[in-house]
Design brief:
Structural class: alpha+beta
Largest sheet: 4 strands, antiparallel
Order of helices and strands: HEHHHHEEHEHEEEHHHEHHHHHHH
Number of domains: 1
Low-confidence stretches: none
Number of helices: 17
Helix content: 25-40%
Number of strands: 8
Strand content: 5-15%
Length: 354
């Protein structure tokens, strides 16, 4: 049976695909050829060789696949890059002056973006396969060996700023990125143009000097890495710089001037902050056991770090608070079954000693 031809006034597939993507909650859309970011592999190799990935061994173990789309899937011809906005309605830095509260990165205060973005990616991919019968597709969000940021820049969503994250003229630094790889040869968009200029706001904002140079990040000094990815005690010289950040850090993102163009109206409702995650009490976090942790952070990306890392982070934040009322709570953690929690509690008590 031969398929009926489309009406002559039917928009191109790329335009219809973008409309479908936006209907599923994506605020940014672009297309790139699979080989549109050839410098990615060399930059990744250099970054890994310098050890800047710290404990993130998976970055190294699948570097060849991560370096280019064809390294992961040789048949891919086009990359559909998509961004979902999580632009915050409130100032991400508002809790800096509230040392009794823990600061959670904006992206983690709402629903788990992995689930939300992947669900939408799959819906868009299903539409594409139904519309173009010969299409093969694969969808990716964060957990696969895909370099979303350079691919999104190549697809015109923005550019990689000096903080190494994607910057969008329309959405600032507040985009969750996902990708659909396809065997279709789609018309690419114009790549994003770097307009950081002489601005160094993101570099200057970093509390732990994690940027050895513009466009280069040393994850070993990054608060997001230290509070989320790093297992074990956090290096002592970096603890004071963490302040009251207990999961991630928004400082370099929030400092970007392009955020003034980001409209919260574009933010996906699934990422609206949960009340208990917007300004959690450090005292409550220090008292968490495993069951409490799982209950509080159910449905949140935070759940993956486990109770140990969260309480470790809260203990460091307590040590930075200057508030001796935390000492009794910290003393209970000195004998904690987690060595990294006990270590952080001892350090915090010493910091708070009169």
């Amino acid at each position: 049976m031969v398929a009926e031809p489309l009406p002559l006034d039917t928009p191109p597939l790329e335009e219809r695909l973008e409309a479908v993507a936006r209907a599923h909650g994506f605020a940014a859309f672009g297309i790139a050829h699979a080989d549109a970011a050839p410098q990615t592999a060399a930059r990744l190799d250099q970054w890994l060789a310098e050890g800047c990935h710290g404990d993130m061994i998976w970055m190294e173990s699948r570097a060849e696949q991560r370096g280019s789309p064809k390294g992961l899937w040789p048949e891919v011809k086009s990359v559909i890059a998509l961004g979902m906005s999580y632009a915050p309605a409130l100032d991400p830095m508002a809790l800096a002056g509230h040392p009794d509260r823990g600061r959670i990165s904006v992206y983690a205060q709402g629903g788990d973006y992995h689930d939300v973005v992947k669900r939408a990616l799959k819906a868009v991919a299903r539409w594409l396969v139904a519309e173009a019968k010969d299409a093969e597709v694969k969808v990716f969000v964060d957990t696969a060996p895909v370099m979303e940021k350079p691919l999104s820049a190549a697809a015109g969503l923005g550019w990689q700023g000096k903080h190494t994250n994607l910057v969008s003229r329309d959405h600032g630094s507040w985009l969750f990125l996902g990708a659909i790889y396809t065997t279709l040869d789609l018309t690419p968009a114009t790549p994003g143009r770097d307009t950081c200029g002489s601005c160094s706001a993101c570099q200057d904002a970093c509390p732990t000097q994690a940027f050895p140079a513009p466009y280069r990040l040393d994850a070993r000094r990054c608060i997001s890495y230290l509070t989320i990815e790093h297992e074990g005690p956090i290096p002592v010289p970096l603890r004071r710089g963490i302040g009251n950040r207990i999961y991630g850090c928004d400082d370099c993102l929030a400092a970007c001037p392009w955020n003034k163009f980001a409209e919260t109206a574009h933010a996906h409702r699934a990422f609206l902050p949960r009340a208990e995650l917007a300004a959690p009490s450090l005292a409550d976090l220090l008292a968490l056991d495993d069951a409490d942790f799982r209950q509080v952070f159910a449905g949140s990306p935070i759940k993956r770090i486990g109770r140990g890392r969260m309480v470790r982070n809260a203990a460091i934040a307590a040590g930075n608070s200057g508030d001796v009322r935390f000492v009794p709570l910290l003393q209970r953690l000195v004998q904690d079954e987690s060595p990294m929690v006990a270590d952080a509690a001892l350090w915090a008590i010493a910091e708070l000693a009169p």
